[in-house]
Amino acid sequence: MVRSNLWSSIKKTCSQKITFLCISHTPKGPIKFNFSLIFLLFILGLWTFITGLSVYLSSRHIDYWSAKIKSIILRSKYEYVNQQLSKSWELLSQVQQNDEQLRKLLDMKTKKDIIIKSEDNYNQGGPSLQESQFLQKITNNPETVSIIEYSNHLNLLKKQLEEQINSYNEIVNNINYQKDLYRNTPMIWPCYGRLTSPFGNRIHPIYKVPDFHSGLDIANSPGTPIVVTADGVVKFAGWQNSYGQVIVVEHKYGFKTVYGHLSAIKVRQGQKVSRGNVIGLMGETGTSTGPHLHYEVWKDGNIQNPIRYVDPEKFFRG
Fold first, then answer.
1. What residues make up the domain containing 137?
2. pLDDT computed for residue 125 by the predictor
3. E strand or H helix at 232, and its extent?
């Protein structure tokens, strides 16, 4: 009974007429439009549906083009990153080749080369399997490369670069070492003159007994300039028994040079000297038969034959 009354009330309400009156400012008079309430509700629902459908389709269309544009931009970024990675590997390969050429030029080997490498390892090289697979992937399907793969690849590239930097530093250190060794190794004649007594066994010129001569005797006029044969520091400058007036210069890498029988000393103890600097004048002080220079070379506390240290070409020949 209640349901029947409710349905009758709804039907009665929906069957009501709604009149729209349009008043014109002309002599024709007003225009009337009569619509039932149910018709207006239908029109309102239809308009709402069409509006919602339009908004939905428009948003889908916008989302599609937005995603497509983002995909194009992302792909171009991938391609750019991949190109830069390829260029980085090419540059690194060139640097490694230059590194190898420098090492051959300097006759250098790393500890790893000495311990691990053998003849079987030479004339080989190339990228690792991981590098090759990654290169193929970023070339053919860059969008499938994950962030983790990129991260791993970049870490590998970083490791290679760090190794190359260490190798470069090793080469620079070796060059600096060779330069320093060159500057601190005796390798020129300490003065002009003639060789009157070589290194080794002889008969002493004064005492006339068998004697071991610990240096070279180079004769010339009194006052002939004496130059230091390598960079170093004057450790002694003064009188020393049979040496007479003598200068002792200490160099790096275990070298020490001695200049005896001088008539004058031009340096003081503790003074730094460079190869070619005049440090004294030739004389005949101490145990001597005439004006000459007594020249000695020591290495790691052992007396050396100075004739081995007067030709720079011998140093470069190793």
1. 73-184
2. 44
3. strand 232-239
